[in-house]
Specification:
The structure holds 2 protein chains of 2 kinds. Chain A starts with 5 loop residues before the first strand and ends with a strand. In chain A, β17 and β18 form a beta hairpin. Chain A is globular and about 65 Å long. Chain A has 7 helices and 18 strands. Chain A is mostly beta strands. Helix content of chain A is about 15%, strand content about 45%. By secondary structure, chain B is α+β, with helices and mostly antiparallel strands. Chain B is built from 9 helices and 24 strands. In chain B, α2 packs parallel to α4. The longest helix of chain B has 18 residues. Chain B is globular and about 70 Å long. The termini of chain B are far apart. The chains are: A mainly beta, B alpha+beta. At the A-B interface, β1, β2, β3, β5 and β6 of A face β2, β3, α2, β5 and β6 of B. β2 of chain A pairs parallel with β3 of chain B.
Chain lengths: ~400, ~450
């Protein structure tokens, strides 16, 4: 074999500042360069990840391998492509982050991280495509602790923005200031999901829309077809790597130009997320979401609603500020549970009456998105430790959500 | 001095601080995946590089594949970690042997073996429909060389991990099942894991659940947990909250806090409860003899006879807590800081056999496998849902039951345990913590456990 079928190079520099009890705990500087090398001959292929191309044997005996069921396929596209959106403020932070450190304080003990990333992705293919793209990311999340109570918020940005750091801390403080215990028993409730919770749950919807999940039966969308109503008409979810959100890219791992893909349009299932090869299996065109073999979302967007976020809290609802540990009991049916974290606030007649604590949402994903009654006009770009896929989300009022408590 | 030793010394010389760890860490792996008996893909990976962690008023960490890119950070801060336990680092070497080297069998032969296993599974005569079966084999070798204030630690651990995903339907129900088997060692491990027999038994059992499983009504009853369930409980409900950094708040914004941060009593459960974490178990996934801070590893008894006995410590938490470090610091890769991690966490077996454990259970449920678990961030409220579960009637295992839910508090469950049998099984897991996130290999396990009069819900 003379040359690889495709080579992807990723070079990233990451700065992570970790705060514990309002003090700096660690400052980490990570530099990482690696190559994903795809060798292919007919329907036989291997993928090798290495830090240096000279460690890859191009003479791998592909002939000895059995044919693969699904074979990564790059687009027949040639020529050079270059894109760069690099923010100087983020780049400067790598030299010395000292100017940011005084901002990381709160009236409550504060915990969290701020992360800055400079990332360059290159892709060369056997068809002569040579793509290069550079981006900067600036993101953070903070958890403010007020005795037994806490609040969390997060931000995600492609440029250095101290205002976002301050606003995020302030919002975490605001939620942490809600106190008083209020018992909630197992049952169905109207809940308001914050953008942090939406970020966590919508990532699971998007991964359920990956053609691989659908093909293997590990998705509540496996038995549905585009055109089926799967959610509330208020709800539109898209994968949008063409904007300014984190993890936006111009080309995918198969040299296909990325695009905005509407997964669910006003409640109607519109499209799975596909690469070329899984698209073939499902008899559809790629959506520019490769992943070799495994299509995946880039960065998500839920369209806004028409009401203010404060009006969603007017009635009798339970507000979930945050959640974690989402696990599926049954991916085919979308049956899952996730645990409330931080300010799970019981609101009666528009007023907070207490914090329910670590109650669990135990329901079906399809039922959650079908139960959406309203979405807020305001949206927030978020990503955090347990919702790492970036996205922009409104608050969502969901009717009849099953809650349990341990 | 070898070239690697020379490089580590050279890096260390750039960091004139009181505590400096320099590490070269590499994980080489191969993953082979099959779907319904056909090859899905072969993925090889070598991920390695250098890192430095040092203490200079706060903790600083830098990593790169190029030693020359590692330099002291410009920031000067007074950190949350204000001091560390300055004990002499150990010198030493540890490794797990490959009796049958991973490289002794060709890629083609490994694929053929996995195809044979898949064929056997797919040819089982069952009433339910097996829609999809993904079988993934992974072999890896983790190698690290660490230099800490002049002391040198060298470790090498090969591992085998087999995971599978099944989608089956029957009787109007669909289930998805996922599980892992694995140990450290060479290819002899693959034989010992008896993957084919395990899968055949699993598929038949799930078929029986789908075809004959019956619903239950919610209520209080006795419950027996298999080692798969006792293992996840040992890991999630005891191991994690016993990480001293979590108790002190270092993970508050990430993997969360611990019930021990606010609890005044040392008593957590019944005196029948003993839970240990032991990195020195040969052929375990979480095996090591010296931790990544140069502290000798040992078995830790986290809960002794129902009471808090000791936490998992590193040099920094040990100093804060005024106790010795018990060697619990590990990093998942070259570009990750060492954190307090579990190794192999388990309920300590008792002295009765399984028959004796269930003989006086009049009406109960035996949870053999689970479909889902999760736990709140203080490690108190948890939920396990049985996938393969059976009724227990008058001391006998009976028919399968459909998807019982065990949801309750750690302290309630630990108090309800009144017996453990004399078996001990371990299962592999990948444990997450830290930012950037670190998935690290661990084992979790235990005997069969009996819990008295606990609430069982339904989905």
């Amino acid at each position: 074999m003379s040359s690889p079928y495709a080579v992807q190079e990723i070079f990233s520099q990451t700065l992570v500042i970790k705060v514990v009890e309002s003090r700096i705990e660690t400052i980490q500087r990570l530099r990482d360069r690696y190559f994903n090398v795809l060798l292919r001959k007919g329907n036989r292929f291997t993928v090798t990840k290495v830090s240096s191309l000279d460690k890859v044997s191009l003479d791998k005996a592909l002939d000895q391998l059995p044919e693969s069921r699904i074979v990564p396929t790059v687009m027949e596209r040639s020529g050079k492509f270059s894109f760069s959106k690099v923010d100087k403020g983020v780049v400067n932070l790598f030299e010395d982050s000292s100017r940011l450190l005084p901002l990381l304080s709160s009236k409550y003990p504060l915990y969290g991280t701020v992360t800055a990333t400079i990332i360059t992705k290159r892709l060369t293919t056997i068809h002569g495509f040579e793509g290069e793209e550079s981006r900067t990311w600036f993101q953070g999340y903070f958890r403010a602790k007020n005795g037994d109570y806490s609040g969390q918020w997060a931000f995600a940005s492609s440029s250095y923005d101290e205002r976002k750091v301050r606003d995020t801390i302030s919002r975490a403080e605001e939620y942490a200031s809600i106190t008083g215990h209020y018992d909630v028993s197992d049952g169905k409730y109207n809940v308001v999901l914050s953008p942090l919770v939406m970020g966590n749950l919508m990532a699971t919807v998007a991964y359920s829309a990956s053609g691989y999940s659908i093909m293997t039966g590990n998705s509540f969308l496996s038995t549905r077809k585009p055109g089926d109503v799967v959610a509330s008409e208020k709800f539109t979810l898209m994968d949008n790597p063409k904007g300014d959100e984190l993890n936006s890219w111009e080309f995918d791992d198969e040299a296909v130009p990325t695009r905005r893909t509407t997964i669910i349009d006003r409640g109607v299932y519109t499209s799975p997320l596909l690469n070329i090869e899984v698209g073939k299996v499902l008899d559809r065109e790629t959506t520019g979401n490769a992943g070799w073999v495994y299509p995946r979302p880039w960065t998500l967007e839920v369209l806004p609603g028409e009401v203010s976020e404060s009006s969603l809290l007017d009635g009798n609802v339970i507000l979930f500020n945050n959640n974690w540990y989402t696990r599926f009991q049954n991916r085919a049916e979308g049956q899952f549970s996730t645990v409330g974290r931080d300010a799970v606030v019981v609101i009666k007649e528009g007023k907070p009456v207490g914090v329910a604590g670590r109650v669990r949402i135990a329901d079906k994903l399809g039922k959650i998105i079908s139960g959406i009654k309203e979405l807020s006009k305001e949206r927030y770009s978020v990503a955090w430790w347990d919702a790492p896929l970036p996205g922009v989300y409104p608050f969502a009022l969901v009717e009849g959500v099953n809650l349990t408590r341990a | 001095m070898t070239q690697k030793e020379d490089e580590l010394e050279s890096i260390a010389s750039k960091f004139p601080f009181k505590y400096v760890e320099v590490r070269h860490h590499q994980i080489s792996s191969r993953v082979i995946s099959l779907m319904n008996g056909e090859l899905l893909g072969v993925y090889d990976e070598v991920e390695g590089g250098y890192s430095v962690r040092y203490f200079n008023g706060a903790l600083f960490f830098a990593s790169s594949q190029s030693p020359e890119e590692l330099n002291p950070s410009p920031e000067r801060v007074s950190g949350w970690s204000s001091d560390f336990l300055d004990v002499e680092p150990e010198n030493g070497t540890y490794q797990v042997d490959e009796k049958t080297p991973l490289t002794s069998v060709s890629l083609e032969e490994k694929i053929a073996l996995l195809k044979d296993i898949s064929k056997e599974v797919l040819s089982q005569k069952i009433e339910s429909k097996l829609h999809n079966f993904v079988l993934t084999y992974s072999e890896s070798v983790e190698e690290k060389e660490i230099l800490i204030n002049g002391s040198r630690i060298v470790g090498r651990v090969p591992r085998i991990l087999v995971s599978y995903n099944l989608v089956m339907s029957g009787n109007g129900r669909t289930i998805t099942a996922w599980h892992e088997l694995g140990e450290s060692g060479g290819l002899e491990t693959l034989r010992e894991l008896k993957v084919g027999a395990h899968l055949v038994e699993r598929v038949k059992a799930l078929d029986r659940v789908l075809q004959t499983g019956k619903g239950i009504s919610p209520g209080r009853r006795d419950v027996v947990l298999s080692p798969i369930l006792s293992g996840i409980m040992a890991h999630e409900s005891v191991g994690h909250p016993f990480e001293a950094d979590r108790v002190l708040g270092r993970e508050f914004a990430q993997a969360g806090t611990s019930y021990l941060a606010t609890m005044n009593s040392r008593r957590l459960g019944n005196p029948a409860v003993n839970v240990a974490d032991d990195p020195t178990i040969q052929n375990s996934m979480g095996y090591y003899q010296i931790d990544d801070e140069g502290v000798k590893a040992r078995r830790k008894l986290l809960i002794r006879e129902g009471e808090v006995n000791e936490l998992l410590q590193n040099r920094f938490t040990a100093k804060r807590n005024n106790v010795p470090s018990n060697g619990s610091a590990r990093a998942s890769g070259f570009d990750r800081e060492p954190l307090i991690r579990m190794s192999n966490t388990f309920f300590v077996p008792g002295d009765m056999n399984f028959r004796e454990l269930i003989e006086d259970v009049k009406e109960g449920i035996f949870f053999k496998t689970y479909m889902e678990w999760n736990i709140d961030d203080m490690r108190m409220g948890q939920r396990y849902i049985g996938l393969e579960a059976y009724e227990i009637r008058r001391g006998e295992i009976g028919d399968p039951v459909l998807f019982p839910v065990l949801e309750g508090k750690t302290t309630d469950f630990l108090s309800a345990i009144d017996g453990a049998d004399d078996s001990l099984e371990f299962y592999p897991g990948t444990c997450g913590k830290g930012d950037p996130d670190q998935g690290i290999p661990v084992s979790m396990g235990g005997p069969d456990l009996r819990l008295r009069n606990v609430m069982v819900k339904v989905i």
